[in-house]
Specification:
globular; 20% strand; DNA-binding; homodimer; three-stranded antiparallel beta sheet; 9 strands
Amino acid sequence: MPTTNDVLLRALSARYSLEPWEQSALAALSSRELAIRRDAVVPDEGGMLFLVLEGWVCGYKILNSGERQICALHVDGDIPDFRRLVLPPAGLEYRSLTVCRIGLISAAAMRELCRKSPGVAHGVMRNLTVISTIAEEWIVNIGRRRAINRVAHLICELAVRLEAIKGSIQARYVIPLTQTDIGDATGLSAVHVNRVLQELRTKRLLEFRGGQFFILDRQRLIDLAGFDPEYLDRAPSQ
Amino acid sequence: MPTTNDVLLRALSARYSLEPWEQSALAALSSRELAIRRDAVVPDEGGMLFLVLEGWVCGYKILNSGERQICALHVDGDIPDFRRLVLPPAGLEYRSLTVCRIGLISAAAMRELCRKSPGVAHGVMRNLTVISTIAEEWIVNIGRRRAINRVAHLICELAVRLEAIKGSIQARYVIPLTQTDIGDATGLSAVHVNRVLQELRTKRLLEFRGGQFFILDRQRLIDLAGFDPEYLDRAPSQ
DNA sequence: CGCTCTCTTGATAGACTTCAATGTTAGTGG
DNA sequence: CCACTAACATTGAAGTCTATCAAGAGAGCG
């Protein structure tokens, strides 16, 4: 049951240690916690930065046509909208895919802390960097891969991210996305996602039942996806 | 003829003023300048951060299949790979679309300056934020728009960015992209880009000759693209 | 003048979407 | 425990958008 401040500390200090005073300053930030149900908009509390303590959240835009494009998926420990520290909310809406625990921290307090603490500022930069690296990979995925490779790539990415949380390769992956969600994340129709998933099953790369995915042949799935398992996992410069 | 340090200062202080000592620290950073020809890889000088002083640069990835996806386009005054400050190069390659003047600054020196100067750190965060905001818009564009709207959207984005540099709406826009480049940026084939551009011409939204685009009906183009003219231009939180 | 790169055009094929119906599952209340 | 509902998954058929292939036309350049 990690608290908001635990998650914040971990997100900002991963692979890079903060000074003790920076850690205590983070721990001292006042925070609030929020439980939200599945499929709810994460409330845009003015000037608050939100953290995903537990659960899944997606960030998306709705087009004039009414279609939805999911731009990012976030799991336990993620801080989806770090950009709010610097610029006002950017037209992206966040919605829960599962029941969630959400942590809230004052953006102004975080800005103030960034100003005083180089380590925290560095952590924020690293988070912003990872977010844009993932976004670029999505651009490549959606822009240039066939449907089957595209869906495989998304699953590889999510699997690797879940492994990073759990610490090891899993037998099964709980990915609470409907086929419509997968379509909205990959730029495909739900019907086609269904067909592609069946093809992945036929190829014996993947099994799925009740929101759980079983990766049957990890290496072949990675190969099919053209997935680079390192891409989320590069050592920081400093 | 802006220098590397000019561009750096402008990129980091836009809409947010740095303290005099921060400005002088930036001005005092030692920099190098580099002239590169069209269609050349921007050399990945170990540990150097590069700035586009003049010209156009694209960041892209090549898939196993040999296809290319352009993930970002950069013009005068942009700092494409700010991420290098925090993480090592991320598989993205940068290539010039025109003859370019490139500025180089030591990433380690910038990191050191970020550590000492909250204003500089804030400027870096703002740049990282803008980069990921654009990337998200590209995801939406590529994922959910039809070819014609997609190309229109790219042109709107580039037009707005060029306007920001020039300071006003232009009669013509020099966009040195081949139709193949536009295809690689939008996830389309060059042949289809050609047909789409002709359709935009037929609709009398756009004219193009010799690498120059003339936007004939700005409002209708924006409408067709579903473009939000504000999206690059939100006021900073602070 | 020939070379290369880019743009253009037509024909054909294929990937993916849309529409519509049916099956499946889990949850709810009687 | 069963009927009822709603959400999601699955299937088929038809249609559309976009890719691919191939060839020719212009334009710039040595």
